[in-house]
Amino acid sequence: MARWLRVLAAGAFTSVQDPGRAGWAHLGVPRAGWLAPGAARAANRLVGNPEEAAVLECLLGRLSVRAGAAMSVAVTGAACPLDVDGRPARWGEAVSVPSGAVITLGPVTSGVRAYLAVSGALAVEPVLGSRSTDTLSGLGPAPLRAGDVVPVGTAARPPNAGTVLPRAPLSPEWLRWSTGPRADWFAPGALELLGTAAYVVHPDSDRVALRLAGPALHRRADRSGELPSEGLVLGAVQVSADGQPLVFLRDHPTTGGYPVVGVVEPVDIELCAQLRPGDLVRFGRVRVPGRGRVRDRDRRLGG
Amino acid sequence: MSDAPARILPAGRESLLVEVASVEASLRLYAAARVADLPVTDLVPAARSVLFDGVTDLPGLRAWLARRPDAPPELDGGCGSAVGDRQAVIEVPTCYDGVDLLDIARAWDMTVAEVVATHTGVEHRVAFCGFVPGFAYCTGLPPGLRVARLPRPRPRVPAGSVAVAAEFTGVYPTASPGGWRLLGRTALVLWDATSPEQPATLVPGARVRFTAVGDVASR
Prior knowledge:
The complex is a heterodimer of chains A (303) and B (219).
Chain A: E1 3-10, E2 13-17, H1 37-47, E3 55-59, E4 61-67, E5 71-79, E6 82-84, E7 87-88, E8 95-97, E9 102-107, E10 110-118, E11 149-152, E12 173-179, H2 188-196, E13 198-201, E14 209-213, E15 230-231, E16 236-239, E17 245-248, E18 255-256, E19 260-264, H3 269-272, E20 280-285, H4 296-300
Parallel strand pairs in A: 12-20
Antiparallel strand pairs in A: 1-4, 1-11, 2-3, 3-10, 4-9, 5-8, 5-10, 6-7, 6-9, 12-19, 13-14, 13-20, 14-17, 15-18, 16-17, 16-19
Chain B: E1 7-10, E2 15-19, H1 23-36, E3 42-46, E4 49-53, H2 58-67, H3 82-85, E5 89-94, H4 101-108, H5 112-121, E6 124-129, E7 136-139, E8 154-157, E9 161-165, E10 168-171, E11 176-178, E12 181-185, E13 207-212
């Protein structure tokens, strides 16, 4: 018997996401995938899915779907009210939902992206091995709209009795970073700024990048030329000509021509997923093991 | 011309960016890394670098990079790589009727006919991909034949457009904004995400020949 979710209201932006399609960057394909892997995987564990199962990533809530079969659902990530057929249900736990019930996420109260997992997992057609929507290249399923019907697989295991607690956001949020490939393009004062200044999340932030505004990070005087485009990594802190930094997120382009001063630690990308315009971030430098001796310049700067 | 010593740059906990001296050196390093089947998720060649991403053993990768012998001297002036030279040449049938043909001719100090003869007369090589899935940056034009990008990109360049910028030729796999100068258009499919084995027609290292045809079906 077919299982599905019918979208009644799609909220600001809701998309299907899974771990993404890494491995195709040599062809210009962004990795995509859920911005907050910890939250998404936790939602899957709650409903008894494999951790890599596709879920819905919902920007700012206000998502409403009708269950086409009895299923378990769980909401994690950004905190929001949850109800089933108008009755309050528990966020962060597996909730049993009868066939035909309407599941509604209210407006997000803290954070940005909520994750909805359903038992059996979303079963849209994968593209290049992933069911993720890529907002940069357009690969993968289109973002959800009211009226869409999303196929759901058969649940293999029962849900888990467990609770996920929402994470209270910090202000400022600290992002750990290590030296990037073009740190030497920047004046020493710039690297110190990165370690001491607070940056504000810009409204243009999206799945491609967390865009920040704050004290300009100036280049060294002898680094005014162009940089040939080079491969980018998740978490790359790229600085444009005006000295403003951004942190590349899951839908980042595969190459870029502006210098990357640092790279945010992989586990801190989860924090980036929940930062709103106006939130403050600060950067704390860490050393990556296995890179060998810290160079003298890094040592002087406390790296 | 042997490879200049490469610089190995940090790129976070799971990556290394290797800077090289030329497009040819980048392709050689990329080809060698592919053949070596390294524990790496992504290899991203670019004009002057190769990114190793999703590395599960950073010290091991550094050791592999240190062990790599210098590349052999160029034999034919092209960007030869042992892997690439055995590949078949991909033909891109092109109708040379691009709106920027005259600008390109001026920049190259040639007639339009000479531009077409030059472009079709060399074997191009895919140096790297980027910008959108399936967009390949091809080298192969004689040195000195370059043209600047448009001052402002066009909001929409038709799919299949064959274009040049700097020393590269590229083909737009889908309609998109674009700042490159348009030489012509091809009906060849450059990108098919439903083709799991090889979604892109032009991949790094591929040998490419542009051939002049009278007309192509619009896409």
